[in-house]
Write a structure and sequence with these properties.
Elements lengths: L29 H4 L4 E10 L2 E9 L17 E3 L24 E6 L8 H18 L2 E4 L3 E7 L2 E7 L5 E4 H17 L5 E6 L4 E7 L3
Antiparallel strand pairs: 1-2, 2-6, 3-4, 4-9, 5-8, 6-7, 7-10, 9-10
Helix pairs in contact: 2-3
């Protein structure tokens, strides 16, 4: 899972995520936006000795679609910075398939500390192994979100659609790696939120745990 060259790291970014564990500060993750969220599935993968947790949550009160991400701090990046944008991996056609959909991201300052960039790198790299088990894509139902985490770092993908959406693991991982580089390694923010231009989904990265 390659990231783009550093010469491309001057673009736009907006990403935010929730942790299955407790956030240092709330009002950012899908869990915080939907206190009634219920875990409907959970799997743990051991990748090179690291335990990667994949959880699926459903929001029964529909509050996710009524929420909006916090304002960014000006550090931004666009989806054109990603090398791999391949909808051919999908099992379904658009609009269910969202691989390659344009998005804009921003770094956010929502927790006292950013996740460990090393944890985020391990999480990004591990998603290639998760995809070998789960398949190249994942399906997210309406009013639901996916969360993958490793120690202090979590990536989250939230659906705002009235129907099921499909997204690619490699693109999810690459986006998480990109915001890790710009927001966390380069001290651009403590979290990140990437909004799709079509308004159907939000991809986030943030700190979980202590």
């Amino acid at each position: 899972m390659k990231l783009l060259s550093t010469s491309l790291l001057v673009l736009s970014l907006s990403l935010g995520t929730f942790g299955a564990r407790v956030l240092e500060r709330s009002k950012f993750s899908a869990k915080d936006k939907c206190p009634s969220a219920k875990e409907v599935a959970s799997k743990t993968y051991t990748v090179n000795g690291h335990e990667i947790v994949h959880q699926t949550f459903a929001c029964p009160d529909g509050s996710l679609r009524e929420s909006s991400p916090p304002a960014g701090n000006g550090k931004t990046i666009r989806s054109t910075s990603l090398e791999k944008r391949n909808a051919a991996e999908c099992r379904t056609p658009a609009p269910e398939c969202q691989c390659g959909t344009a998005f804009d991201c921003e770094c956010q300052d929502v927790t006292a500390n950013a996740p460990s960039s090393g944890d985020c790198t391990i999480l990004q790299d591990s998603l290639s192994v998760v995809s070998q088990t789960e398949g190249s894509t994942f399906i997210v139902q309406p009013d639901s979100f996916e969360l993958v985490s490793f120690q202090t770092c979590a990536f989250e993908w939230t659906s705002f659609s009235n129907s099921a959406l499909e997204y690619c693991w490699d693109e999810f991982a690459n986006t998480g790696g990109l915001v890790n580089q710009i927001c966390f390694e380069q001290k651009g923010g403590t979290a990140a939120a990437c909004n799709s231009n079509n308004g159907l989904w939000l991809s986030q990265a943030l700190r979980v745990g202590a």
